[in-house]
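**User:**
Make up any protein.

**Assistant:**
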Amino acid sequence: MEWLISLAGVTLVMAALRDLFHTLWHPSRHGGLSRLVMTALWKLARHVRARGRVVGLVGPLAMVTVVGMWAVIIILGWAIIYWPHMPGAFTFAPGSRAAEQPALLDSVYLSLVTVATLGLGDVVPADGWLRLVSPLEALVGFVLLTATVSWVLEIYPALTRRRALAVRLALLRDTDPTTGQLDCVVGALLLDSLATEVVRVRIDFTQYAEAYYFHDGEDHSSLAATVGYAADLAQRGQAARRPDVLLAGDLLADALKDLAAILDQRFLHTGGTPQDVFAAYAADHGRGPTQS
């Protein structure tokens, strides 16, 4: 029975580590727990009266919540591993009152101290296998800390790339170049560079799905508010006479179709055309349909 309880603790720890791996390092970057938490918080924020202010906090709050849940599951999992063997398989420092506490409380305390790599030494594993398991928990705690830091450092460059594309599209929307103005070498270069940026953002949505739940702000230069105008520019490029502009317009149109496919497959599930997907994206981020 003792080993069955410990096995349940191992299952909890492995579930947390699996979710951490799929969220941060798996090629699909599609963690189950993190995705559920972020989706739930996003949907909840959409029904709050002060939606604009609350939605802006969803991304950071969701990341903090996910990391906290990983930590809690790992700490509880290791505590359950220790629990059936407490206090007989452990040595307590002289004068310590730890042994006078309930076994589960001692187990949680030991797990918390170990995962935080504090090493207070008032409760020490005595059995051989526990002396191996306890340092392993400290190693997992170090992995959790470094994974959290790397997650934060990875997500914000992706948000910067998305924001840069959105601001550039907003500026182009203000100048609103015509088909004739785009029908030149500069127009071809412009459309080609936009296609490259759209591809980068598409990859970011694939590799950093949590970026979707970060709000761009209340202005009209968010990607949700400007991506529809990129489709208008692609159509103008496709209506030009120069072959290089036609090619660049086709590239931008294809890049936008690919971006729409990712948004629809992972987040929106409309099953519609790229225009429908971008309209749903704008609505989901508190924007009306984008205007040309």
About this structure: Residues 115 and 137 are 6 Å apart (CA to CA). The radius of gyration is 26 Å. Confidence is low (pLDDT under 50) at residues 288-292.
